[in-house]
Amino acid sequence: MSEYECSMTINASMRQIEDFITDVKNLPRYLPTTQNAMPEPGERVRVQGEAHGHHYDSDGYFHVDKSKNRMEWGSDGEEKYRGWLVVDSEESGKAKVTVHLSFEPSPTLSKGLAEQTGSQDEAIQRDLENSLRSIKNIMEGRGGKVKSVQD
Questions:
Q1: Strand 95-104 to strand 2-10: parallel, antiparallel, or no bridges (unpaired)?
Q2: Phi and psi at residue 114, in whole multiples of 5°?
Q3: Which helix (H) or strand (E) holds 23?
C-alpha cells in the first residue's frame, strides 16, 4: 500500500474549514474526482465519480472526531484506501490542513493511472494537492474545485 501526504495553510478559521470539509454533501465540491456523495446510516458514505477514466460507485466509512480536529475515511470495495485529514490552528486566524492517504488501487486502475499520467504516484499526489487547493479556493473566496488532470 502506497502512502501520500500533503499540507496547506488556508486563510480561514479552523472551525470554518472543519464545518465545510466534514459535511458529506460538500465532498463533491473539493474532491477532484467525486461527482456525488451521499451520507448513509451510521458513519457511512457512498461516493460516485470518475478517476482517470475509471468510474466508481463506492461505499465506505466516514468518521469525524471534532475533539481531535480530525476526519477519517476508507473504502469497502475493490480499491483499497483509507485516509485522514487534520486541521490545526495557526496564528492570525489561519489553519493548516494536512491530508494523508494510504492507497492500493486494483491492477486495472493502477495500469490506467500509469498509462494516462505516466506515474500513478504523481497522479494521486496531484489529486491530493488539488483537494487542498479546492478547499483553499472555497474558504478564501478565490474560486472553486480544482479538477483532476483528466477533466
A1: antiparallel
A2: -65, -40
A3: none
Q: Give the residue carrying C-alpha cell 470554518.
A: 16
Sheet hosting strand 80-89, strand order edge to edge:
2-10, 95-104, 80-89, 70-75, 54-65, 44-51, 34-40
Question: Exposed e or buried b for every residue in 115-137, given b needs 16+ CB within 10 A?
Answer: ebbeebeebbbbbbbbbbbbbbb
- Residue 69 in contact with residue 80, Cβ under 8 Å? no
Q: What is the CATH number of domain 2-139?
A: 3.30.530.20
Three cell numbers, residue 55: 468510474
pTM of the entire predicted model:
0.87
The mean pLDDT of the chain is: 87
Alpha carbon distance 61, 39 (integer Å):
10
Q: What is the DSSP string of 108-126?
A: HHHHHHHHHHS-HHHHHHH
Give pLDDT tens digits for 82-92. Answer: 999 999 988 78
Listed by start position, the domains of the chain span 2-139
